[in-house]
Amino acid sequence: MNDVKKDGTMDKYVNAKIEETSRNETLTKNSKTIENMVEMDSVCKTYEDGRIMALDGVDLKVRRGEFVSVMGPSGSGKSTLLNLMGALDTADEGRITVAGHDLTQREDFSTIRSAEIGFIFQFHNLIPNLTASENVQIPMLETPLSDEKMVQRAEDLLKSLNMENKLDQIPTKLSGGERQRVAIARALANHPSLILADEPTGSLDSKTGKIILDILRDIHRRDGVTIVMVTHDERVAEAADRIIQVSAGRIEV
Ligand SMILES: Nc1ncnc2c1ncn2[C@@H]1O[C@H](COP(=O)(O)OP(=O)(O)O)[C@@H](O)[C@H]1O
Ligand SMILES: [Mg+2]
Known about the structure:
The chain has helices spanning about 1-5, 10-25, 80-85, 110-115, 130-135, 145-160, 175-190, 205-225, 235; strands at about 35-45, 50-65, 65-70, 95-100, 100, 115-120, 195-200, 225-230, 240-245, 250. By secondary structure, it is of the alpha/beta class. The protein has one domain (about 1-250): Rossmann fold. It has a 6-stranded mixed beta sheet, sandwiched between helices. A 4-stranded antiparallel beta sheet has the order 2-1-4-5, with helices on one face. A hairpin with a 2-residue loop joins strand 9 (about 240-245) and strand 10 (about 250). It is globular, with a radius of gyration of 18 Å.
């Protein structure tokens, strides 16, 4: 981590997050006692001043510990749905509760995200000039963990994903499957109660995709973490307890 601090890359992140840290310490996880990890009531989301209706009155409940797949045509609103659940974007109308936090009543989204939610994207979104271990440490910068503990946890997570020989590699030196393992380790860094995965196998060949899917299933089984996963692939979707179909901004029932 010291190397990174020298060129200022990590400093930018640290500085951006410092004001969050004190609030973060006060956010208690109440997700162990709630029934539903996600609740959406009549959620609408438009883009382009209302010209594009991305979500059109979505009602959805995801139970704590459930593994749900989201399927639907391109442009049907799957990513929008995930982004709203992940407090990466806000709804125009309706109510969203995630891990017991009412997102429509709160504004400290980054605190909720870092304490409760792990994200995995199709194109991993790793920071190119940071090593695998440093990428995994990024979410932990928002916690009171010492540098030593952050390094240890990042290494433990990567080792648990058979990445012990790649701790100090930068993303361009890793294969697609390896990058996605780093992204999974990063998503797990802060012990999330909810993992949101947007086409996590979408840019992988089918064999590598299956390995990544098996890792997600193991995490679900072992840790009981709730997973919502968007996928185009029916075989991938079938790994979940339940498949939700999205069509033109609505959930099909
Ligand atoms: N940031 C944005 N600005 C404008 N339109 C958007 C934006 N994000 C998504 N959309 C539009 O909203 C609709 C739903 O998009 P999205 O949720 O990405 O669908 P999916 O993930 O199912 O392919 C599409 O018509 C898309 O073009
Ligand atoms: Mg999408």
